[in-house]
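Q: What does the assembled structure look like for these inputs?
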Amino acid sequence: MFERQKWIYRSCICLLLIGYICLGHYLITSTNSYRPTDQKKARLVMAVPAAQHSDKIYTDIISEFEKKNPDINVELQTIAGNYYQKLLVMIAGNVAPDLMWMGQSFSEFADRRVFLDLTDRITKDPDIKLDDYQQAVLNWYIRDKRMYALPFGIDIGFIAYNKELFRKVGIAYPSDDWTFEEFLVIAKNLTMEAENGKPKRYGFHGKIDLGVFGAQIISHDGKQEIMCNSPEMIKYFRTNMSLYKDWKTTPRPQENMMQGLDRYSYFAQERTAMMVFYTWDLPFMLARFGELDWDIVSNPKVKQKAQWASSQAIAISGNTKHPDEAWKLFKEFQSKEFMIAMSYCSFPPNLRYAEAAVERRIGKPENYRGFLKMITYLSPTPRVPHLQELMAMYFNASEKIWVERATPEEAMTRLEKELKEKITRNTVLKIEGNK
Amino acid sequence: MISKKIIHQNLTAWFYLLPNLSGFLLFSLIPVVFAMTLSFFKWDVFNDPEFVGFQNFRDLLGWTNTDGKLSFNDSDFWKYLYNTIFLMIGIPLNMLASLCVAMLLNRKMRGISFFRTIFYLPTICSGVAVYVLWACLYNPEFGAINKMLGMFGINGPGWLTDYYWAKPSIIMINLWAAMGGTNMLLYLAGLHGISEELYEAANMDGANSFQKFIHITIPMLAPTNFFIFVMSVIAGFQGGFDAAFILTQGGPAGSTTTLSYYIYNHAFGWFNMGYAAAISMILFAIVMCVTVINWCFGGENE
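A:
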């Protein structure tokens, strides 16, 4: 009996080992993205961040592409959450996708030579006309005079306002050429009387963008100088602090913890008359605001007009085994159809297609055309090496101001010093080395 | 001369240990050795690692003297170490709550298994779900906690957005999640292990419930207490990531960033793998020291 049990145990262990080996073999072979499913077909892997509204657009354009190119098979990987971190792991694991979506962190990857140099392909291709593009946005994807990606959408920050509340209070709707003084009068008028020390309705929710103050964290002129401790930046902080401390037109940052859909509810429930949103919010705004009468307007002018902006682009991996096939697919994302399809959540950087998107737009926001003007004064976060760490340091310092742990002067002086120290120690920024 | 039987027995033992050992080597020991090595390199994943000696440790732990004023090279590290230790204030509270729950659930009554399951439920729930639930409860605008406080005319704070409230709020969540968890099970097992004869003898001597608790239960649970404390301290130094990642992103102003979240940011957010590995090594050293101290003093008390 004991002998029999022993053999059963041994057999189990053997089966377990065989299972381990099979599992290991499966994992190794299944993660090899370059393994063609069909020897005659080139297989491309494309990574994009998962988004409820754009997944179908990507799927449709890829299936159309596969019909037109039966010799190419495309696998779309939609990555939910922490896109760049997951991409990093894929690259480190030597299973980098052939094509990848890139946003604000483009420079982080580009500086590390992850992408294929597309300069020659872009300039020689008769289908791509660079003159049609918004030049500033195009420049975001140029490193050392070489092009590594092309944008298909511009993300823009804007102010949405509740037209019904404006009518109730008897105030004219804001126009795209409004000033900060006009904004403040409107915000004060729309703020409703206090209830338990808290206004029942705020005139404005969000922050007036630092770009309109002429403030910069790092200079946009290519020299990449640290400029966070400037009078413009101090004014940016002081003015936004006054919005909630002195004028009480805006909720305090501590009261303000709205993530995801809560932000839309806040606006839809008329808790604020004006609120900062971004182009990627548009599909959610349309779905959530229902019958609400709303529209959009650009940021008010303080020192200058400016809109926060970022962009979405596609880049090709430098390690792709099918650069020609990847280029074919890449071009699909520069097509008029794709840019217009994506224009519901980002504005086309190709100005001809942007005009077409504006013409085709029906319904809200009525001032969609305003984006055409906004893209002439974009204020992006500069594409510098180690952007994420730099921005984390900036956000940390600015949060200290919002929670009143430091004055703007103290926080920005300290931040400037810390950034310089980091550069000196060569642990964060290698701005000089990157030139 | 080693007999054939002993060789056979040894081989059989190794054979049985092999699956566990291979898993340990592959997923624990090799990564730990790799991380130790990596802490002496500068590596951004994309390019080849560059040997920098102790540079990462100097950047992390060193300081500079400017105009007679000492300033740490990485002041954030010390701040986040403080945050990590601050969050461990919850350990004794957790232990006390778990002991109370265990004592309540150690009674012989109908449906006790049901109550034990209910109290254990937060442990088997997904951590993400628990944190999302608490984020809703803590929401200053729509959250149930501030709504309830509002009924009494109290303006509740921004629990997770206020610099001073964020850490205690996270301690509260951990307390809720952990009091009915594994610690409670360990205490239950410990309570089961106490001989009834001791309580009977105390009853004969006329001891009341409190005296029995102080003079019998607590001393008899000393090994359990010690084990739970050591494990909680180790987990405490490694913890705080989930809450920071899901609830606060380390804010406001870094007040909920712990060392584990700082390591994650350096490694996967900013691609400073070598520096992240150096922080991991320091964390490892701290945990090791604290555990050794615990064992020395705890062993004596035991």
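Chain A has two domains: 42-154+311-368, 156-309+381-434.
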